[in-house]
Every structure is written in structure tokens, then in C-alpha cells.
Amino acid sequence: MTQQTHEEQMEAYTEAATSGLYAKQSGLVGKYDNVRRLWEDEITRLFLHPHLQQLIERKQSRMQRVRIMDLGCGSADGYELLADVRRRDADLRDFEVALLTPGMLGFYKGVDLNEELIAQAQSIYGQNSKLVFEQADFTQGLPMAENEKPYDLYFASYGTCSHHNDDETFIHLLADIASRVEEHCLIVCDWLGRYSYEWQSLWTNDLSENRNMDYVVSYIYEKEEREQRRDELQHLFLRLVSRQEAEGMVAEASKRAEVAIKPLEYFDRSVFTGRHMDTADYNPQAQPLRQAVNSLHEANVRTDPSSLLVDYMPKEGFEFINDYFEHLQMCWNALVLYVDELMQNYDVQQRTFSAEPPPVPASYPTALREMMERMRLVVEGVGWLGLGLPRENIIEPQLGYALRHLEMRLQKGLGCAHGLVGIFEVGTIKGPSPNTFAKRAVEAPRLPAARVTTAR
Ligand SMILES: C[S@@+](CC[C@H](N)C(=O)[O-])C[C@H]1O[C@@H](n2cnc3c(N)ncnc32)[C@H](O)[C@@H]1O
């Protein structure tokens, strides 16, 4: 090889920089921030798991593979979410942990109205002929040809169903799906929750009001840049949906199709960590909690525990919702304060707590008690480690997961979070009742007997 000039060598760096591969990666901001990848994607997977597992087992027993349609697929985000659903029975010895293995995926069709996103999806997955992307408008009906085989899973994620500003187009789409089912299918719908704390100013008891919101895509920038670019920010017109409204639309689609569309589960996703908590664009009292949770999960970054403490401001006339938020706030803060106390009391030299942590009150909700006990074991187990920044890289991410677990166990599926997700079934699969599965989905894996004292 001949000696290169400095200019020639610099070209290698220029190419790397323009390819984007040299971009500084951070989970603190952007579409795929830590909360999106480690909370929102995972919560969706955990709730979906039992239903997807049943579906896969059913297809396997018939010697068939799974067909998926992703409505509003973006750059194939639905495919990535589904391909990363893990088996719940996998343990440390397993390496292959995917529930939907490449061998069980028969066909995935992603549809989106946006040409650029379709092109991006094609550039990433175009070489895999089982993955097909099409530009189509789902408000014009189900993007499926007459002779196209029905799908086993119709999947819409991250508020995509809120793009149906008029309920009629959503009902029409759902009725189309139901009437094309031959034996069985699952349908996943995802809306913006009507009663998210992020947009408390838009809450109304009269459901004919504030049906669609002017959703500013301001969160993609950090605070300073967000304000500088205020006038050039993109706006979306999006339907806000409560559980009651979702149920009404699904019942109407069922009636029109003359096919039962059975709700299996509704869940709220991102109660205190929605993207507009950080912007406070629709609730001046919203605290930047997504930023704080992103920090918990960011490698090598130490988080100020006080940035995680929630001070929920109630809204008059919404007592039931206020009570729910207050209860979650109390549990959330109790866990944060407990973990802070554990860390303050941990003696690294002695490898033990300098003072015995206070007992966990038996009156606390089970989910909170479980998470406090686990966090004590985590702090005690790794506090002395030294290598690899145990607080930043082990304890704080675990606190993130414990808060996530708390949110999942206490959520009510009413539309009290950024996302309201509904999982539905047409036709039936024999097996354990979905409710048993639903409960199992959010159960924390069992711990060996803990050494934690619980006050009676
Ligand atoms: C909130 S994004 C979700 C994207 C992706 N599913 C994800 O998980 O990140 C909504 C997506 O729906 C698409 N979309 C909006 N209106 C649509 C329509 N009428 N027909 C088809 N796609 C639409 C948008 O282009 C966008 O990609």
C-alpha cells in the first residue's frame, strides 16, 4: 500500500461523518430515546406477549407461519418491536430468546402514507423478501387487495390510530379487518390518551369537546433549540381517546362487520413519562420526568434523585383521575426516596448498610413493596463493585425498571397516559383465559426468598 497524503486520510473521516455513523449517540433525546426503547417498546411487548405467544402456538399447531400487517409502519418500527418480543421462559443460559423467530414469520407488510419513511424502511429491510412496504392511506379503508390473504396480526403502534381524526374512518377500517378474518386474528390499536397529565389543560368531561389536539412535535429538540425553532415546528392534528370512546368505536365496528371484536386488554403507557412532560406545552405544571428517566438509563450519567420526584397538581372536576394520579405519585416517590436512602446508607468499605434500612410497611401496595425489596437487594449486591460505575450503570437503570414496573402494575387502561393501547381478538383461540395471561404479563419474575424485613 502506498503512503497516503494527510488529505487522503482525512477523506476517511469525512466519509464516516457524512454517513451518520460518527453521530454522537445519546438516549437522552430524540424519537428513539431511552424511554422509548426501554420503557414504551418493552411495556408494549410485555402486555402483548401472552396474546402473541398464543397466536404463534396456534399457527405452529396448524403448520402455518404468522402474517403481519403494520398500519402506519414508519420505518418498520412495528417489525422491530415485534421481532424483539422475548420468550418469558428464557433464562441466563439461553441465547436465542425471540418469541417470533425469523422462521415463524411468514410475511410482514408495512403501510404508511409517508413516502420518505417507506423509502427508509425499504432501504433497511428491502433485501428481505418477507418484508414488503407500501404507500397507502388507511383512512381510505384497509389497504388490502381483493385476493390478498388475511393477516394474523394487524398492528398499529404509538398513537397511529389517533391519525383517524374522524371516528368514522377508524370504525370503517376496523370493520374491514373484522370482515376479512377467516378464522382468527389479533388487532392492536394505539391512541393518544385523553387524560394524559401532559395535556391536563385539554381534559374535559364532555367527550364531544377537545376531540382532536394540535400536537406540536416540539419534543425532538432540547429546551433551548425548541424555543429558538418554535415557529418552524411541525404540528399534527390528533384524536384524543378515552377507554369509553375506544370501546364505543370497537362496538360499532363489530356491529357493522357483524363479527365479534373481543377486547382482550387495554393498557395505559407512559403515565408520567410522556414526551410532552418535558415540554410542558399543554400543562405548565408538568415536570420534565421523561428527561429524568432517560438519565436513569443513560450509561455513565448520574441522576439527581430529586429530579424524579413527582408533585401532581389535581384538576377540579376529575376526582377519580386525580385519585389515581395521586396514588401513583405517592408510590413512585416512595420508591425513589427509599432507593436514595439505601444509597446514602451503603458503606462501600464494609460492603453493607451502615444503618439497617427501615422496614417496608406492609400497608404499601404489593407492587411497591416488591420493588423496594428488589432495589435493596440490588444496592446491597453491587454497591461495593467499584468497577463500571455501579450507581450509574446498575442501580439507576434498575430503579428505572422498578418505576416502569410500578407504572405497569398500577395503570388502569383508561386513557390516563400518553398512550392508550387496546388488544383485540376476532375468532377465538382455545387455551387459558386472556385475563390470566394479562396478569402474568406484568408480574415480575419471582425472586429467591428475600432477606428484607417487612413491617407488619
Ligand atoms: C405516530 S407515528 C408511528 C410510527 C411507527 N409505527 C412507530 O411505531 O414509531 C404514525 C405513523 O402513521 C403514519 N400515518 C399517518 N396518517 C396515515 C394515514 N392516513 N395512512 C397511513 N399512514 C399514516 C405516519 O406517517 C407515521 O409514520
Written description of the protein model:
The chain contains 13 helices and 13 strands. With 456 residues, the chain is of the alpha/beta class. It has a domain of 310 residues: Vaccinia Virus protein VP39 (Rossmann fold, 3-Layer(aba) Sandwich), CATH 3.40.50. Strands 1, 2, 3, 4, 5, 6, 7, 8 and 12 form a nine-stranded mixed sheet that branches. It has a two-stranded antiparallel ribbon with strand order 9-10. The longest helix has 28 residues. 42% of the residues are buried. The structure holds S-adenosylmethionine.
Task: Produce the secondary structure layout.
Blueprint: H1 6-18, H2 34-61, E1 66-71, H3 77-83, E2 105-112, H4 115-125, E3 131-135, E4 153-155, H5 167-180, E5 185-193, E6 212-216, H6 223-228, E7 235-241, H7 243-257, E8 261-269, H8 275-279, H9 289-296, H10 319-345, E9 346-347, E10 352-353, E11 360-361, H11 366-382, H12 390-410, E12 419-426, H13 434-442, E13 454-455
Parallel strand pairs: 1-2, 1-4, 2-3, 4-5, 5-7, 11-13
Antiparallel strand pairs: 5-12, 6-7, 8-12, 9-10
Residues 72-74, 77-78, 112-114, 117, 137-139, 157-160, 163 line the site of S-adenosylmethionine.
Q: What descriptors fit this protein?
A:
15% strand, globular, 13 strands, 456 residues, alpha/beta, nine-stranded mixed sheet, two-stranded antiparallel sheet, binds S-adenosylmethionine, Rossmann fold, 13 helices
Q: Give the biggest sheet.
A: 9 strands, mixed
Strand content: 5-15%
N→C terminal distance: 76 Å
Could you tell me the number of beta strands? Answer: 13
As a percent range, the share of helical residues equals 25-40%
Overall pLDDT level: 92
Give the CATH topology of the domain at 29-300 and 413-450: Rossmann fold
Radius of gyration (CA) equals: 24 Å
- Give me the CATH architecture of the domain at 29-300 and 413-450, please: 3-Layer(aba) Sandwich
Pairing-aware structural class of the strands and helices?
alpha/beta
Number of helices: 13
**Assigned CATH superfamily of the domain at 29-300 and 413-450:** Vaccinia Virus protein VP39
Ligand names: S-adenosylmethionine
Global geometry: globular
The CATH class name of the domain at 29-300 and 413-450 reads Alpha Beta
* Low-pLDDT residue intervals, each spanning 5 or more residues: 431-439
H-E string: HHEHEHEEHEEHEHEHHHEEEHHEHE
